[in-house]
UniProtKB/TrEMBL annotation:
Stretches assigned to the Cytidyltransferase-like domain: 6-171
The name this protein goes by in its record: Probable nicotinate-nucleotide adenylyltransferase
Keyword Secreted tagged: no
PANTHER family per the UniProt record, alphabetical: NICOTINATE-NUCLEOTIDE ADENYLYLTRANSFERASE-RELATED, PHOSPHOPANTETHEINE ADENYLYLTRANSFERASE
Metabolic or biological pathway, per its Swiss-Prot or TrEMBL entry: Cofactor biosynthesis; NAD(+) biosynthesis; deamido-NAD(+) from nicotinate D-ribonucleotide: step 1/1
Entries under Gene3D superfamilies matching the protein: HUPs (3.40.50.620)
Family: Belongs to the NadD family.
Gene Ontology molecular function: ATP binding; nicotinate-nucleotide adenylyltransferase activity
Record's keyword terms, sorted: ATP-binding, NAD, Nucleotide-binding, Nucleotidyltransferase, Pyridine nucleotide biosynthesis, Transferase
Underlying gene: nadD
Reactions listed under catalytic activity: nicotinate beta-D-ribonucleotide + ATP + H(+) = deamido-NAD(+) + diphosphate
InterPro entries listed in its UniProt record: Cyt_trans-like, NadD/NMNAT, Rossmann-like_a/b/a_fold
Annotated GO biological process: NAD+ biosynthetic process
CDD domains: NMNAT (cd02165)
């Protein structure tokens, strides 16, 4: 059975923190395929200074060119209104009827997971793979996973690489150097398109 890792987010823009997490999760999980899914309008976030879906998709495609299993999926960009994980998973299930899905989440997402729309149904359609972003979070995540569903939620130990898209956008706006924070092709794309200025 094909194992597909799903990594959703605003990716506004995709940065080295995202890629670091992706590589560490892939090293432990060995997915046959990894799909990165930019959200249309994320339900949990304010969407000010959000680059267009087309630009975010293109930046993602450039960022994962060197990760053989990874590709981008524009399934959420075709809908109107907010993106909900349960709806995306139902659509993906129709596209990949026999695959096993693993939905990758960070600390904050797992800790609030039981507030998500139809979270129990999400766990019927996919395993959750949670990764700790900062030191000391691993135990908290394990406790939460035990409380919600110990069979369907996996908690991985990963080396933290704290980095936020908000901070990168702030630096770009201020004309600060972000070369260490973004994949070179993504930075080049942002500069060419004049994004986040």
């Amino acid at each position: 059975m094909k194992k597909i890792g799903l990594f959703g987010g605003t990716f506004n823009p995709v940065h080295n923190g995202h890629l670091n997490l992706l590589r560490q999760v892939q090293a432990q999980m060995q997915f046959d395929e990894l799909l990165l899914i930019p959200s249309h309008l994320p339900p949990h976030k304010e969407a000010s200074d959000l680059a267009s879906g087309k630009d975010r998709l293109q930046m993602l495609a450039l960022a994962v060119e060197d990760i053989p299993e990874a590709g981008v999926c524009d399934i959420e960009l075709h809908k109107s209104g907010k993106s909900y994980t349960i709806e995306t998973l139902r659509k993906l299930r129709r596209l990949f009827p026999t695959a096993e899905f693993y939905f990758i989440v960070g600390t904050d997402m797992l800790l609030t997971f039981d507030e998500w729309k139809q979270w129990r149904d999400i766990l019927k359609l996919a395993y959750l793979v949670a990764s700790s972003r900062d030191e000391g979070e691993y135990e908290r995540l394990c406790e939460k996973a035990q409380k919600l569903d110990r069979e369907r939620i996996l908690v991985l130990k990963t080396q933290p690489f704290p980095l936020s898209s908000t901070e990168i956008r702030r630096k770009l706006k201020a004309g600060e150097d972000v070369a260490e924070l973004l994949p070179p092709k993504v930075l080049r794309y942002i500069e060419q398109k004049g994004l986040y200025r």
